[in-house]
Amino acid sequence: MKKIIKYTGVLILILISASVMAQSNARVVAAQGGTEQLKNGTCTIILPQQMSPSNYYVSVTPHGNCNTLYITKQEQSFMVSESKSGAGKSSDVEFDYIIFKKRPAPVSPADTEAVQPSGK
After folding, report:
1. Reported pTM
2. Which residues, 6+ apart, have CB-to-CB distance to 92 below 8 Å?
3. In sequence order, which residues have a C-beta less than 8 Å from that of residue 94 and are 6 or more positions away?
4. How do the domains of the chain map onto residue ranges?
């Protein structure tokens, strides 16, 4: 039995973008993503345990025609929402998302105090 896999230009673009960003941006440690669907204009996605609101970026790509999508970071999740501009009706569009975990800021020698051994 043959399995048919459908590739879309959007998904390929996301994967290429993620790969390029992870390789060229020293601030990104790892990437993780998936596909979800808005329900009445919103969708909440639970974060992996190692992420907090201050240490990740998110990229969202809709699969169809909709108003602008934006994210709101919460404590252990983020919400993807559709803006209310346009016709006023919320869509149930599918979207791809990718989460990029930020690399911790390096500690420079100037940021740490030198410990001097005591002479005793």
Report:
1. 0.62
2. 37, 38, 39, 40
3. 35, 36, 37, 38, 62, 63, 64
4. 29-104
CATH topology of domain 29-104: Immunoglobulin-like (2.60.40)
Q: Write out pLDDT tens, residues 57-108.
A: 899 999 999 899 999 998 889 999 999 865 667 889 999 999 988 877 666 6
Please report, for residues 23, 25, 55, 74, 103, the alpha-carbon distance to residue 50 in angstroms, rounded to integers and kept in the order given: 21, 20, 9, 14, 12
Q: What contacts 79, CB < 8 A, 6 or more positions away? A: 42, 43, 44, 45, 71, 72
CB within 8 Å of 38: residues ≥ 6 apart = 66, 80, 82, 90, 91, 92, 93, 94, 95
